[in-house]
Amino acid sequence: MKQQTMNTEELLAFAEEAHDSGTSWIQQADYTGEEVIMTDEDLAGREPLQRLRIIVESAGNAKYFESLFYNGAELEELMSELEPVFEKFPKKVLSSIEMDEKVQSITE
């Protein structure tokens, strides 16, 4: 079963219900939208939008999670919330290209 979620509780439940150990594939990078909506003046002093992508895989099952955030505090809060997932499914960092390939295979 391969599914996508934007909900941390769903990801935590998936990790708790999994009987086998597995891997958390993780990738974080600047997120570039398709077009700029705000002018440079509106963006002055603002941190760039970041994207965190996680795939938790266990025994042929996978759950894909994606979240956008602006600053380190938001990322730290999210990672803290997901710590139980990473305790059961050790993190492995992927490049953007590797994550794109994994996501494509998950969502097909």
Automatic annotation (TrEMBL):
Top-level taxon: Bacteria
Protein name: Uncharacterized protein
